[in-house]
Amino acid sequence: MYFAHSGGGGLYSVSIVGARAVCVRNSNMLFNSVSKINAGIVSSCIVGFALSYYAYIVETSKEHDSSYEAMCDISEHISCTKAFMSEYGKGFGIIPENSPFYFPNSIYGLVFFVNFALLSVSNTLAATTMLLILGVLANMGSVYLAVILYKLQDICVVCISTYLVNAANLTLAVRKFNLLSEGSPKKRKAN
Question: What sequence ranges are listed for the domain Vitamin K epoxide reductase (predicted)?
Fold first, then answer.
């Protein structure tokens, strides 16, 4: 038997009445939920990319003009330039200056947010697991850099905003992983 139905879950068709109808509807709801999470991750990455780009502009402007004052430099202890220009502003303070990977931290942010966004559009469990791993690493980096800010006795609005973006990305990646895990064939067979 074949029929089409337009209900609260959207338009879907069913070839066999019964369990198949529930499966198709759940699959449609899963796709909608995952799509919303993907949109959240991409949006969050756009914000992270913009913050990283701004950090790069501030750092390079300050390097070329020592009198440059960024909008995020509010006071002596609320200054993004202080953080960006510190010894920890390039290579996270752990990569040697003579290394080919000695870049401003903002460059790492730009690359990270582009790759995180690109990876998020894949709805495979493997890609989502990679998102989780990258999200955890980014948040570990955020904690490390937050400790550095504390050592510098500085509040960097751009840095803290980036930490919040990393936390949001990890939260969304966990939600996506849980949704995809629940919808996987192995999980459905176990129920």
Answer: 34-177
Beta-strand ranges (E) seen in the chain are: 3-7, 10-14
Q: Record the tokens describing residue 99, joined without a space.
A: 């290394």
134 token code pair: 């990258």
Tell me which amino acid residue 3 is: F
Nearest-angstrom CA–CA distance, 162 and 156: 10
Which tokens is 53 given?
């780009």
Q: Give domain limits for the chain.
A: 36-190
CB contact at 8 A, 159 and 147: no
What number does CATH give the domain 36-190?
A: 1.20.1440
Q: Which residues pair with 13 in a beta bridge?
A: 4
Dihedrals φ, ψ of 184, to 5°?
A: -75, 150
Please identify which residue in the block is written with the tokens 């029929």. 3
| pTM over the 0.85 mark | no
Q: What string of pLDDT tens digits covers the 191 residues of the chain?
A: 444 444 444 444 444 444 444 444 555 666 678 999 999 999 999 999 999 999 999 999 999 999 999 999 999 999 999 999 999 999 999 999 999 999 999 999 999 999 999 999 999 999 999 999 999 999 999 999 999 999 999 999 999 999 999 999 999 999 999 999 887 655 445 44
